[in-house]
Design a protein that fits this description.
Length: 701
């Protein structure tokens, strides 16, 4: 069909028909043969009590074309041009990227929809609108909608809060919209990161799934919609505040890219596509170097900076094989507690009278890299910066926003504020040998405006620019995106940062779920996973060394613990753990992540399988006591069904605490096919709750 564009990659098809002079997405999902494409077009019936001609819902969803629902573009000029009808003017295709340019001559608007189907079968959708008129056009929303089949049954998305990010919630899709909104001015702990629509029975392991993820670090909106006319859609957009985007003559608004993923092999299949897409970038951190074992000293010393203690920590870290040492909050200005100092990025003479050189040299002398904490977008009222420039904070009119961790947000769209932060951070990075910075963001934005205009969008662009400029000025610098833990994790930030602090909650039991679900979108090597103190500071729970170490293995691994308190035995175990991580990080940071489906809710399995299926490592974690005296089998998914694997228990971080007379026989090694391991699986040991084991599988034929 000459009016049809068919993009295909890795078992996914996107089919767009333009015969009605507007792009209509006919299909996004499983691969379709070219010979079948004709069957998809113009097959809508014409019901009674409806328009006289069958209506195809084009991507712009205009009322003028008979669509009675939310249009893709919402906006107007004062009193007019609120309703649009876009006529397709140009279709440009370059390989697997196609761009459709359409114009509404009456409303004097041009819209462009760009679809790129990546080699991994991930669809990137980018919309923009340009004002062709002479008067201002106010954009309220520009939303990317994609159709999904009527047979999708459930919506799965993720909610959260500080210390408990990305908890799954699954429910039936009903008529109407199920909307998730984030209005924190940053991505937010409650950001869904991805929203899935699932065919009946679809799970982590099997079934058809469609997912959308907004690649944006500001206000956001994602939804699943089942319309009364019987069609179902997913959508995402930047949530714009009133008058946030007002286009002058000739100006363009580029909406953030919406990343869409289809999988016929469950959520794990979708996750694998996303990981492969992120990893295909030249700047992806593991394409540059392996991820170093990291010690962050926050939970070891908090604001109590003392050279002797930190030097002791560096020595202990070096002995167990840590490769990077990170000094957290408290080294600058009047920052002896969390009520002062933000904004003054100058080494404190009170705590560091000779500068940071003494500590940097010490850390480097024992063979570690040095990393440093910043929170550049923030300012305390008790700071030299605020005293000099109280007007540099984001605020509306004469109102000072309510304090949040006794801090305010700097208006980085203000050139003076941006330069102040850049110059001070740049000076520190120029003076000291710093490989990595952890960049925090510990408050939400309220009434965020720049010169009276809503400015979340400007703030997000400013931080992207800040990171890009710092990296350009300091080649090789790595940046971690942190926001009170996992409050700024999204596919937009992936393009500017190298690591995410997944959560402030280092309790291993909580991390079992936080890590598991965050890694659906973000590859594990970009997620900070640290061994916390024996007694978790976040929950007060006490966990064994082994459970904490095994849990922390599945990301960019590190420690956040006062190692000077660790016993000789614990240090010995930590060394074994660090050695194991170094030996396996090549596999863990390149393979396919598999979660599989939980047979019983009391335990879960998580693993990484080499891309060639040759080897794999799994974690089996007992979260709560099993309902049964013999817990459900451990199913190892993702291996080659017909290949034989040697499977065995490994204990690089010590033995898990079990309550059994004898362990299952396979502990010593067993040979089984990948098919059998994924179906019947291995007999589970009787672990005490909050314990975990590691299992290795190696292909032997
Ligand atoms: C919040 C972060 O998430 C923590 O890891 C730590 O850096 C503190 N801020 C420091 O204030």
């Amino acid at each position: 069909m000459s009016n049809t564009i068919h993009l295909k990659a890795d078992g996914v098809s996107l089919i767009i028909d333009t015969s009605a002079n507007t792009p209509v997405v006919l299909h996004w999902g499983r691969a379709v043969a070219d010979t079948e494409v004709d069957m998809l077009a113009a097959i809508e019936p014409t019901p009674h009590c409806d328009f006289d001609e069958p209506q195809q819902i084009g991507i712009w969803r205009e009322n003028a074309r008979g669509f009675i629902g939310e249009p893709a573009l919402k906006g107007s000029r004062p009193g007019r041009d609120w309703s649009h009808k876009f006529e397709l003017r140009k279709t440009e295709q370059d390989g697997n990227t196609v761009a459709f340019t359409s114009v509404d001559a009456d409303a004097e608007l041009e819209v462009v929809a760009r679809f790129e189907l990546t080699a991994q079968g991930v669809l990137k959708v980018s919309h923009s609108v340009t004002n062709l008129g002479l008067t201002d056009f106010n954009v309220e929303a520009l939303t990317a909608f994609l159709p999904i089949p009527d047979y999708t049954k459930d919506v799965l998305d993720f909610h959260g809060r500080w210390m408990r990010e990305r908890q799954p919630q699954r429910q039936p899709i009903h008529v109407g919209q199920w909307v998730r909104e984030g209005r924190e001015g940053r991505t937010g702990h409650d950001f869904t990161l991805i929203q899935f629509a699932l065919a009946e029975g679809a799970t982590y392991e099997r079934g058809e799934t469609w997912g959308l993820s907004l690649a944006w670090s500001g206000n956001n909106r994602q939804l699943v919609e089942r319309t009364a006319i019987g069609r179902t859609f997913m959508a995402a957009n930047e949530l714009l505040l009133p008058n946030e985007v007002v286009l002058g003559s000739g100006e363009t608004y580029d909406a953030p890219t919406v990343v869409a993923v289809y999988s016929g092999t469950g959520i794990d299949g979708a996750s694998d596509r996303l990981h492969r897409m992120v990893r295909a970038r030249a700047a992806h951190p593991t394409n540059i170097r392996p991820r170093p074992v990291t010690l962050n000293v926050w939970e070891a010393v908090y604001f109590d900076h003392d050279f002797a203690k930190l030097a002791e920590l560096a020595d202990a870290a070096a002995k167990i094989g840590v490769e990077r040492f990170v000094l957290d909050d408290g080294w600058f200005g009047a920052r002896r507690h969390d009520r002062a100092g933000l904004g003054d990025w100058i080494v404190s003479a009170d705590v560091w009278p000779e500068g940071l050189g003494q500590l940097v040299d010490k850390v480097k002398s024992v063979g570690l890299e040095f990393g440093l904490w910043f929170e550049g977008e923030m300012v305390n009222a008790d700071s030299d910066l605020y005293r000099a420039h109280p007007d540099w904070i984001l605020h509306s009119g004469g109102r000072v926003p309510p304090e949040f961790r006794t801090q305010q947000v700097l208006d980085l769209a203000h050139p003076g504020a941006f330069e102040h932060v850049f110059n001070q951070v740049d000076a520190i990075l120029s003076e000291y040998d710093i490989a990595y910075i952890k960049w925090d963001h510990n408050r939400v934005l309220t009434e965020a405006s720049h010169l009276g205009q809503a400015a979340v969008r400007k703030q997000v662009h400013a931080i992207y620019r800040m990171f890009d400029q710092l990296k350009a000025a300091h080649p090789g610098l790595e940046i971690e995106s942190c926001a009170s833990g996992g409050g700024r994790i999204d596919l937009g930030m992936v393009e500017h940062a190298d690591r995410f602090w997944t959560s402030d909650n280092n309790d291993a039991l909580e991390r079992q779920s936080i890590n598991r679900y965050t890694s659906i979108v973000i590859p594990p090597e970009m997620l900070g996973t640290h061994i916390g103190p024996t007694k978790a500071h976040s929950t007060g729970r006490t966990h064994s060394h082994t459970f904490r170490a095994v849990t922390a293995l599945w990301g960019h691994a590190g420690l956040e613990w006062d190692l000077t308190e660790a016993s000789e035995e614990e240090l010995e175990l930590l060394k074994g753990w660090a050695d194991y991580y170094k030996a396996k990080r090549g596999l863990l940071h390149s393979g396919r992540t598999v979660r599989g489906d939980q047979t019983e809710v009391e335990s879960q399995t998580y693993g990484v399988v080499a891309q060639d299926g040759g080897e794999a490592v799994y974690m089996y974690a007992a979260l709560r006591p099993s309902e049964f005296s013999r817990p459900a089998n451990i199913r190892l998914t993702g291996l080659e069904v017909d290949a034989t694997y040697e499977v065995k228990l490994v204990e690089p971080a010590g033995a898990a605490n079990a309550m059994q007379i004898l362990p299952p026989k396979w502990y010593a090694g067993v040979r089984m096919s990948g098919g059998l391991l994924a179906s019947m699986g291995l007999r589970a040991p009787v672990l005490r709750p909050e314990q975990a084991i590691l299992i290795e599988a190696k292909r032997v034929n």
